[in-house]
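Archive entry. Fields below.
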Amino acid sequence: MIMQTHPLIKPLPRQSRQHHGVEIEGLSLSLADKAILQDISLRLPDAGITTVIGPSGAGKSSLLRCLNGLHQQWQGEILLQRRDVRHWPGGGDLLRRHVGLIGQKPCVFPHSIRANVVFGIQGRRKRRKADGIVETVLKQAALWDEVKHRLHEPAESLSLGQQQRLCIARALAIRPGLILLDEPTASLDPRSKQLIEQSIRQLAGTMPVVCVTHDLEQARRLGGGVIFMCEGRVIEEAACESFFTQPQRLESREFLRWTVCDCD
Amino acid sequence: MTNTRIAMVLVVLLALPALLLPAMSLAYIAYKGIPAFSWDFIFGTDPGSGFGVAGGVFAQLLGSLLLALGAVLVAVPFALGTALYYHLLASAVQRHVLMALMNMLQGIPPIVFGLCGLIVFVHLLHWGVSLASGALILAAVILPMLVLNSITALEQIPFEDTEAARSLGLSHASVIARVWLPRAWPGMLTGLLLGMARALSETAPILFTATVFSGVVWPDSIFAPVTSLQTHIFYLSQEGSDPAAIQAAWGSAVVLIMVVAVFALLARALSRHTNRQSGVLSEGADS
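PREDICTED_STRUCTURE:
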């Protein structure tokens, strides 16, 4: 029997697209009549680190906010694990549970360390019985050894570096399928930076991790893929080592040399 | 004398009246009112006997507290709802209009509210001179203050907290219940206590909507009138011919000031405690 394709049925995604955890096609975003992102198309792998670099105002953070639905007025198409984020089952709140976002400034709630870790878990009973999850995610975030004896102390008493790792643990506790980090180590001490990078690399083994950073050395240390953005556009997308040793675009070379970009 | 010193002296001279006048007024009220104090005066439940010459102010104190409590209970949910609307849903234009409206409402003389209460609650709705009429009209008087206070309390919540909670997939309702209210409640409670103090200070709105001079200790229902300290002082000072009645008015004034001061000081203590706690926590965070 010959199967005919009904003209109204949308064709299956191309074979090549099925191997990507995140697929972005023609993404544009304008806020207050200003173009923030312009026609961005990207493919991110099912696991591994992708570092987004670029000068201030390049649209890096806005890209992350589009991915987890905090910005909703964008045009284009974003697919996470082949599902359109606009029609995510359960809506925007469930999308955000799938896409963990950790901001630049550590943000802990005025509760205990434990309560912060389980903050995103739905249901009071589940939160109460989440000791196993607390230990697992604090270990993943390289914080367990420092806080295991004081889980009931206020989270605000931790250092900034510890607070940021607590934020990572809190995001992991809701078992996301993708982690977005928006300059997670900006203004942190070298030791905290090192621990967070270690944690990011560990996470990248199991899920896609997208990390925005201003720190080119950090981008190089993290490895994986690099996306260079400027003025709301993707200028170059390459493997980390190839980008830093043989950048293909003039703008990329300028940025690596002087950390400025003149892509107009 | 250097310019700095001259400026300092000028500032002190300008500030002195602001400090001295209230202090002198308070001292004078205390001097006139404290001699009226006795067990029977504070706790006597024979209200207004002999047109204030005998009997105590317990019933009036109770009435004032009932009115203020009723006003706060009515106003707080509306204030919270308005502040949440302002914070969550209002457009820039709506925010502008809402702020202008609240500031304008704060500027309306309380007697105008009293007049509205008289027409709407007492006459149109036939609630009569009652606790309900007085509490509702006092709620309208303190509502703008509570709304502005709640908006300020919500605005002080760091944006990062909201974004972090939304990023964890919390719904708007969960963000309000688990992030905003725990963060904002000390500020809102401070506003509530100040609202109580303000409601206790108002006389005009309840003069012809809620109170009678005597004959009530505890109202039978919310549609029964009450007595209050504010109007008690007004009646005694306006119509009392006996010097003992005038002294009772001064005594009532001292009681009223003390009650208002308790709420104002509680609000201040709470505010200081909250600020100190956030200071300690942010110091801890920086270490």
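CURATOR_NOTE: Residues 58-273 of chain B form a domain with the MetI-like fold fold (CATH 1.10.3720.10).
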